[in-house]
Amino acid sequence: MKAAFFTFAREETIPVFDHxxxxxxxxxxxxxxxxxxxxxxxxxxxVEIPSGIPVYYATGITEYEDYGLPGIVRNSTDSTxxxxxxxxxxxxxxxxxxxxxxxxxxxxxxxFISLNYGFTGDNAVIYSAASALLCQxxxxxxxxxxxxxxxxxxxxxxxxSGFAIASKDEISSSQFLSSSVEAVEIFRAWxxxxx
Length: 195
Prior knowledge:
Blueprint: E1 2-8, H1 31-44, E2 55-59, H2 69-75, H3 85-92, H4 100-104, H5 108-117, E3 123-127, H6 130-138, E4 146-153, E5 159-166, H7 168-172, H8 184-191
Parallel strand pairs: 2-3, 2-4
Antiparallel strand pairs: 1-5, 4-5
């Protein structure tokens, strides 16, 4: 098994341009997507994998991401401090850039990973749980290898991303197979060095 896990603090620039084939795509990325592209790019420097590899990605609960919500709230609040549906329609919604929709969809990290790295195999996005990600991987239509990934935007504005290339034997013996922790914890554990 080969695994990678990286964290980026809120104020830290994620070096996504070092790993993009088409730099124009970066404008569509949430911080989670950018971290996933970088994490996988760093893993792939050490190993080559076939384009038809199955790719399964788990996204965690997004605890923080600035999508311009303060401006929407400000422009949707009336003089008494209450939300106004009329103001939201006239002014608040205009604050939402159309490109934001790409940053909100939970399947965007996997979509952009596949586009950037040319993956054409079976793929799925799983929401949160480690056990769900591993069970999905065990149902892959191939025996080996399988590319697993997970990401999370934390409440402090930081973002985490992990990836691994693993066999079904390695996955089936994982302690996380029956765990309800967020999937990103798998990669933290798989990359920790024993003391």
